[in-house]
Design a protein that fits this description.
about 20% strand, Rossmann fold, transferase, seven-stranded mixed β-sheet, 7 strands, O-methyltransferase activity, globular
Length: about 210
């Protein structure tokens, strides 16, 4: 999306609460990657339309996305996974500050391992994948059995800085990851159990709805 259009959309977004604004400022200062405002606003709208009872997030970071999703579905239960200890601790603090400990449960560890322990839990209505991009397909395969029929899987960063569309301009350190994201996108669009749309907003968001 052109920069002037993005600036226009950012300026149209309603002002966030001061506590959310502080998290955004802290993330920018510490260079912690969180969703761009327009992308987050879009995801919130998906959440509002779906009104999920249970949400699973792969990649907590500092708890920003979990808190924003809770804004859109105040009665939801959110389970979120983070493997970085420092970010996990920051997320715990942010969630406590917002008084959301009863609704947001953070699990510390490798999501690829922890997902196997959720097989006997109640199904999730929305699953948000925003973790190691090279593992997107594996995450998707593991969470599919955890998703209710007509549930939604949201994947962030599927266009990754425009490099997925134009891999020839990607720095060498990103080329293998860009190739994996591209393979994931093609695989996702052909998945027999899902209908997927890729939206060129922010860093690219894939919305995949499971067939009933």
């Amino acid at each position: 999306m052109k920069d002037n259009s993005m600036d226009y959309l950012v300026n149209m977004i309603p002002k966030r609460t001061s506590s959310i604004d502080l998290i955004e400022q802290g993330a920018k200062k510490d260079r912690v990657p969180i969703m761009e405002p327009v992308s987050m606003h879009f995801v919130q709208q998906i959440i509002r339309l779906k009104q999920p009872k249970r949400i699973l997030e792969i990649g907590t970071a500092i708890g920003y996305s979990a808190l924003r999703m809770l804004e859109a579905a105040p009665d939801a239960e959110i389970v979120t996974m983070e493997r970085d200890v420092q970010r996990y601790q920051e997320a715990i603090q942010n969630i406590r500050t917002h008084g959301a400990e009863k609704q947001i449960k953070i699990l510390l560890g490798d999501a690829l391992e922890m997902l196997k322990n959720l097989q006997n839990e109640a199904l999730f209505d929305v699953i948000f994948i925003d973790a190691a991009k090279s593992q997107y397909r594996r995450f998707f395969e593991l969470v599919t059995p955890l998703l209710a029929n007509e549930g939604i899987i949201i994947t962030d960063n599927v266009l990754f800085r425009g490099y997925v569309e134009k891999p020839h301009i990607a720095p060498s350190r990103y080329k293998k990851m860009v190739e994996k994201i591209n393979d994931y996108n093609h695989w996702l669009m052909q998945h027999p159990l899902f209908t997927t749309s890729i939206v060129p907003i922010g860093d690219g968001i894939a919305i995949s709805m499971k067939h009933s």
